[in-house]
Amino acid sequence: MEKLIVCAHKRPNALCRLVCFPWAGGGTSQLAQWSTLLSNSIEVLCVRFPGRETRLNEPFAKDMTSLVNEVTSVLLKDFQEKPFAFFGHSFGSYLSFAVALHLKKKYGLEPVHLFSSGAHAPHSEEIRSIKRIPISDTKDEEVLAYIQKIGGTPTELLHNEDIRKHVVLTFKEDIRVLQTFSFEKAEMGIPFCCDITCFNGSDDILHDLQAWQELTSGDTSFYELPGGHFYLLEPSNEIFLTKHITRCIENAGL
């Protein structure tokens, strides 16, 4: 449990758990601290992917299925015990969706709310285009330039050669995992009945958000906040996000 999950503030009496899934190349430090901003009725769990932080010496995940299976096996008892919601940003949004889909198909469980951030709908054409990126042949310099362009990684860290190499490697390995992700809506119908909220940065690329509506019989909401791909790291946006998430969860009729 402690290997995969970071829980900065344990709240055994919480009504609901919010499971946070970080972005490609990301760790748990930012999202795990949301527990200080969210209501005491919500316990925050943040997923730690292999190949970073305390899992630095572990091999990276081979594919999306292995990550989904790890998250599910470790947290299944918690999911069965009390209501849960998912928040994922970018790569984390696709992983959270894949975990939610697996839980629904195999165990009849689903989140009370699914929060997606900075991500296309999982059945969009844009996801297929990501699969066509020859990540193995992409030069580290190109990946580094992209990481610097979208932000999210402190510049001072990238000045250290060892850290810079690891950041680039981790990002590439996470994209490789994303390329193994596959979801064909035509085979599924409408998979969920929970509400879905999509967040996006106003200066980020245009994401295919509207198609998220096709994935639930519940309500779907859309919010654009000021900033680029990592708009969520801005303190004012963090406050908006955590207040809104708290309100949505507390209004979910737990």
Describe the structure.
Helices cover 37% and strands 15% of the residues. The protein has helices at 29-32, 64-81, 91-107, 125-131, 140-150, 155-158, 161-178, 235-250, and strands at 5-6, 16-21, 42-47, 84-89, 113-117, 195-201, 220-225. By secondary structure, the protein is α/β, with parallel strands linked by helices. It is globular. It has one domain (5-250): 3-Layer(aba) Sandwich (Rossmann fold), CATH 3.40.50. It has a seven-stranded mixed sheet, with helices on both faces. The model has no long low-confidence stretch (mean pLDDT 94). Helix 5 (140-150) crosses helix 7 (161-178). It is built from eight helices and seven strands.
List the keywords.
seven-stranded mixed sheet; 254 residues; 8 helices; alpha/beta; Rossmann fold; 37% helix; single chain
